[in-house]
Every structure is written in C-alpha cells, then in structure tokens.
Amino acid sequence: MSIEIECVKGDIADQKDIMAVVNAANAQLKSGGGVAGAIHKGAGSELEKACRSMAPIETGEAVITYAYDLPNEYIIHCLGPIYGVDKPSDELLKRCYENALKLADDHDVDSIAFPAISIGEFRFPMEKATEIAIKTVKGLLPQLKNIEKIRFVVYSDEVLRVYNSYLKEI
Fold this sequence. Notes:
Elements: E1 4-9, E2 20-24, H1 34-43, H2 45-52, E3 62-66, E4 74-78, H3 89-106, E5 111-114, H4 126-140, E6 149-154, H5 157-167
Parallel strand pairs: 1-6, 2-4, 2-5, 5-6
Antiparallel strand pairs: 3-4
Helix pairs in contact: 3-4, 4-5
C-alpha cells in the first residue's frame, strides 16, 4: 500500500478531507493558544467535556476523542515536549508522532493531519523538530495498515519550506 505524505500551509482545524487531526495539546487537554485553541474553538464545548476524564496526559502520550463540530471524525491529542525542560526532548517528540500514528491506525483512520508539534510556544528548534517528525513518520510507514494519507499542516512559509526540504528526502 502506498501512503501519500504532504505538507501544506493552513489551519489544522480546517482539514475537511482528513479523518483525524492532531491537537498539539496541553497536559490538561484544555483550550489554549495556537493549535489547541483553534481545535477547541472549532470542535465546540463538547470537546472540553470529553477531555476532562482523560486529563492529565504525560509528555509524548496520545489520546483520541471524537471531533464534534470539526469536519473530521477524530482528534488525536498529543502533549509535545517543552524544549530544554522535558527530557529527553527528542525522544519525547518522537513518541508523540509514534503514539498518534499507532492510535490512528488502531481506529481505522485512513488520513491524519499533524501540526508542527512543539514548535512555537514549546520552543523546539524548527529544523530539529521537523527532522524528528519526518524520520519518525517514515520509519513507521511499513507498520501502518489503514492510513493512506499523512498531512503536515504548518502556519508559515518558513516552516513549510523546512518541511518540504525534509519531505524531498523521502
């Protein structure tokens, strides 16, 4: 089976053709800034209610909920590492992508969209985070049984350029 991998600039909460979107969540799975704020705003108040019983989550962990008012079926919530605080940061970021993909595949998800986890508020260096994301996804491709499309949704031209340079290698 061939898996399509792409990167686009856009809003993670507006991926109408994707079955599951990934939330760069906080430990309490509450609304916040950036990705978590956009996902919670788009999904509506039912999402916060659903998340209460799952929180808190550990760094690198992933949990799944329905997407409620978003145009997707599921939201996979991952807690990325705060660079320089949560250690080993590289391994914890890798676990985010691994756990999200495995959870998606276990729920028969055929398409998944990731934000740039831990870049931004969590201060992970963009090049390093991108390399970890792409290498981790590439390494898991042979194990995936249901996923046909993996999309990275980024917020700036600079991040898009970096992701596309790493994607060319696969």
